[in-house]
Each structure stands twice: as structure tokens, then as C-alpha cells.
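Practice problem: Sulfhydryl oxidase
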Amino acid sequence: MAYPSLRYLHENYVKGNSNVGEKFQSAESAAKLKDQMIFKIQNEQQAGQLKHAPSLDIDSPANIQTMPTPSGVTYTFLIFESPNSTIGSEIVLDTSDYTNILIKRVSDSSKLAESIGVKTFPAVAVVGPSRTPNILNPGTPTKSNILKTINTYLRSQNFVFPKHLEFEDVDELNALKNKDLSSMSADAVFYSDLEKTLKTSLHTEITRHKVLDGEPLEALLDFLNVLITAFPFRANMEEYILELHNKLSSKSSWNGNEVYELVKKLEASHAPVFSTNADYIRCKGSQSKYRGYTCGLWTLFHVLTVNAARKPGYEAPHVLRAMHGYVKHFFGCTECSQHFQAMAARNRLFDVKENDKAVLWLWISHNEVNLRLAGDVTEDPAHPKIQYPSVTNCPDCRLSRGAWNLPAVFEYLQKIYGANNIHDARSIASAAASPGPFSDLDIGMLSLLYMS
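Answer key — C-alpha cells:
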């Protein structure tokens, strides 16, 4: 239901929507979570499982001669430590792709430790082709220092280390290489980003609930309602969302597996719903751990508020309320959801009544989040969190002393997120900006809201 979360899927795991593996208890730090994972692997191996994984067993050999060595191993590194220590196990896992190398845990109470003169623990020794153990000196015997000592030794032996490469899916970006992007704003919105975000939402986030009823079900129906009202549909997605909403409205309670099956069944019957499986474009991070879905979700709700504001009535405030319900009940990041709900209360989301104010409320709140996360570990160095829009992209959005020019900001948001200005990844055309009405916007109230 939330992350950070960890599930263990054993080697005989059978895939199923209701079979989500064995839950790990939450830990207060990454180090404790790592220890928990290591102990789980050790327990599994002691039970005869995970035979394909590197062995984390600890041995007590009497001497080198009685210690078996697999064929093909050139160097064996012995980590002498307590059975309760995780240092050796971490090093085993960190070096699991080293070829012709064996990392072996040895008990600090073994006869071998005594016979080769190991006095302090943890310690590390290397056994080469001569089968003579040599104690290495890592200085302070931390995991980092021991691993560094092992790598230093291997470099002295001209060992060829594995190359760790992170491959990114760049198919969609390659499709844009020959396009003329010179006239396109750096803030341009791509339809494929909105599609990918919706697909993740419908396939993954809304199906996490074991039982979907009451307030969460109402939140989902509200979310689908605002999509029907304000999403810039293409292909067969509108009919798909309409039928999904109607089906989900027909019952007061659903289980997650039923919702998942319904989503997939309707997607097949209305195919094509999603026109592409390509990666994000504007929301693509410099590494896979950055941006992506969260960027897509912000973009989606900006699109919905802007296009709902062009409808009669109070549709854009309805989008804000639907966003609040979605983030509260479905957005997986627990901490993010709590921050958003606190901000919504502080910035009086439910007091917003006019369409134009809803557009600017979301812009103000997004900038508040950007300010809070600037410099955070989650920030993509290639896409720093700024106060949006930048002076470069919208010089008219700032007044002489740097204060926001709210009418100009509103016009810019209309230009970027308006349905007619959303770009197709494979046939980019810069559409003329559709002017939006600026009605009776209460600039004074919004200015105070932004400064509070």
C-alpha cells in the first residue's frame, strides 16, 4: 500500500495480483533494513533455499587444506568475523559478479583464525594459487575499508573488474532527435507522459487495496470523473475511462484483484487505449530513480485544473478535491502523501471556489513543494527544483523586484497545459496558445496565500 516497502518473493513464487510476497517489517534506517535482508537470505539458505545465490554461510575450518575451494577460483578472501556480523555477507553480495573470486565468511572462533595469527576481528586474509594465507590490513575494519582493501589487492594482481552500466530506454527520445524543437518551450507537455502516468495509476496504484470501498472508492470515482471532464483524450481512452467509471460505480465494494481484472479487461475491449509503451519524455530523469511518475502526476493535475477551468461551473476546484483524495488514498509514497495533505490544510484547498483560483492554487502549492525539496536527495541534478516558471521561459511572469506577475503566470499555465498545446511525441507541432479567461481572480488573496 505504500513505500518505502519491501517484499520478499521466494524462488518458487507464483505470480498473482493478490500474492504480493512476504512483507518485511519497516526499519528505522537503511542500515537496519539491509541487515534484515541479509539475515533473511542467511535463514533461507540454512533452510535449503536460494542455492543459486552467493553463499552467506559462516564456516569454522581447521586449516586451509580442509577448506573446499570451487574450481575456477583464483583468489579466496576470508572474512573472519562473529556469526552475528553482517560485514562479510555484505562483501559477498557486493562482489557477487567478480569472476574467479570467492569471498568466504569464517568464524572468529575457528582454529584457522588462531593458526594464521588473526588477533582482532573482523579481519581479512587472502589465499592465492599457492594456498598460503596472507593477512591484509584494512586499517579500521569497517565493511567499506575491507572491501577497499580487497579491491586494492586485486588491482595489484591486474584483476579485471566488472563494468556496471545503467541502460536507459531512449527510444522515444531518439524519435525526437530529427525534429525541430527550437520553437518549443522547455516546459512543453507530451501526451505520452500523461498516458504513461495514467497507465501506472490504473495498473498499479489503484489496485493495491485489498478492499476498495467507502472513502477510497469515492476518491477513485472522483478521480475518474475529473478525467472524464478535463483530460485531453485521444484514441479510445475516453470510452475506456467512461466504462471503467460506470462499472466501478455499480458496486459499493471491490477487492484489488477484481479492480485489476476489470482494468485489464476493459483496456483489451477498448484497444487501443494507450498508444505507446515509450518512456517519459519531459518527465524523464537523468537516471531511472529520478522524476518519472511523480513528475507525470503533477503534470496530469496541472493539465486537469487548466482544462477544467475552461468549463462552466466549478470544475477546477473539483479537480483539486479529487487530487487530494487520490494522493491521500492511492499515491504510494506515504511521506509525500502526508506532506501534501498537511499543505492542503495549511493552504485551505477546500476553500478554493473559483476555477481560476484553483489553477493558481496548484501552481503555488507545486512551487512550495519544489522549495521544500530543493537540494534533497530525491532531486535530479539535471533538473533542479526551481520556482516555476523560470525567468528564461516566462520573463513576463516576474515583476521588477522579482515578485510574481499573477496574470502573466495564469496565461503561461494556460499556454503550457491547455489541451490544444499538448504535444504528440512522434508528430510535434507547436500549436498556437489558447487564451484563457482571467475572470475575477482575487490577486490579493492569492498573493497572501503564496507568501504565507
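Discussion: The first strand starts at residue 7 and ends at 8. Students who identified this feature from the C-alpha cells alone can consider the problem solved.
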